[in-house]
Amino acid sequence: MQARQKFRILSICLLFVIQALFLVAIFVENTNSYIVLSFIGLLSLFILYSYLKSPIHHHIHEYESIKIAAWVPVGAIISYYFNQIFGLGPVMGAALTGTLASFIPNINKKSSYLPHLPAAIYCGAFVGMSSSQVAHGFSFILTAGVFTAVFLVISKSLLNGVGGKLGTLAFLGVSLTYLLLYLFK
Fold first, then answer.
1. Which residues, in sequence order, are CB contacts of 21 under 8 Å at separation 6+?
2. Taking the C-alpha atoms of 107, 112, 116 and 118 in order, what is their torsion angle to the nearest 10 degrees?
3. Which residues of 8-36 are buried (b: 16+ CB within 10 A; e: fewer)?
4. Terminal CA-to-CA distance of the chain, rounded, Å?
5. What does the pLDDT look like over 33-76, one tens digit per residue?
6. Across the chain, where does the E strand assignment appear?
7. Which of 48, 8, 43, 16 is nearest to 27 (CA)?
8. Beta carbons within 10 angstroms of residue 72's beta carbon
9. Torsion angle (degrees, nearest 10) of CA 35, 37, 43, 45
10. Of the candidates 114, 123, 107, 115, which has an alpha carbon nearest to the alpha carbon of residue 74?
11. Is 47 exposed, middle or buried (0-12, 13-18, 19+ CB in 10 A)?
C-alpha cells in the first residue's frame, strides 16, 4: 500500500473517530434514549461509508499558504469579540465576521492573494463561536485559532467536496486546545 493511500485511510479514520466521539458526547449529555443512540450509530455508518467512497482527496498533496492561514486566528478573535463582548451570540458573530471578510477581495480585484482570505477568516469565525464555558478568554481563542490554521495548512488537499470542512477544522482546533488545557491543568 502506498504512503499516500495509507495517509488517506488514516485521515479518514481519524476524522470519523473524532466525529463519532462528538456525536456520542452529544448523546451522553442530552439524552439516554436508545432510539437516539441507534440513529447516531446509523448516521456514523453513513458518514464512514461516504468518506470511504467519495473522492475527497487530490492525488497530489498540496499545502495551504501560511500567509493565508495566518488569517484564521484573526477571524477567530473578531468573531469571538462579536460573540462575547458585543453580545451578538455565536451565530451572528460568525455571520458578521464572514460577511465582512467577503468584501476583502473587492479591495484589489487584481490581487491573487485577497480572494483566498475570506475562507480562512470564516474558518476562524467558527473558532470564535465557542461558548464561554469552553473558551476562557481571548488566549484560548487565539491558541485554538493557531491550531486551526495549522490544520488548514495541512488539509489543503484533504476533504475536498465534503461540506463542513472549515467547521470541522475549527472543531479540531478548539478540541485540541481544550484537551491540552485539560491535560496540563
1. none
2. 10
3. beebbeebbeebbeebeeebeeeeeeeee
4. 41
5. 777 777 777 877 887 777 666 655 555 555 568 899 999 999 99
6. none
7. 43
8. 33
9. -120
10. 123
11. middle
Lookup: cell for 143: 491558541
Q: Residue 14: left if φ>0, alpha if ψ -120 to 50, beta else—which one?
A: alpha
- Backbone dihedral angles phi then psi of residue 104, each to the nearest 5 degrees: -60, -45
For residue 3, give the amino acid letter: A
Buried-state track 92-116, b at ≥16 Cβ within 10 A, e below 16: ebbbbbbeebeebeeeeeeeeeeeb
Given a contact cutoff of 8 angstroms between Cβ atoms, the answer to whether 145 and 76 are in contact is yes
Instruction: Give per-residue pLDDT as tens, 125-149.
Output: 999 999 888 888 899 999 999 999 9
Q: Are 173 and 151 in contact (CB under 8 A)?
A: yes
Separation of CA 138 from chain center: 18
The radius of gyration computed from the CA coordinates of the chain, to the nearest angstrom, equals: 17
The residue with cell 462575547 is 84
Spatial distance between the Cα atoms of 100 and 111, rounded to a whole number of angstroms: 18
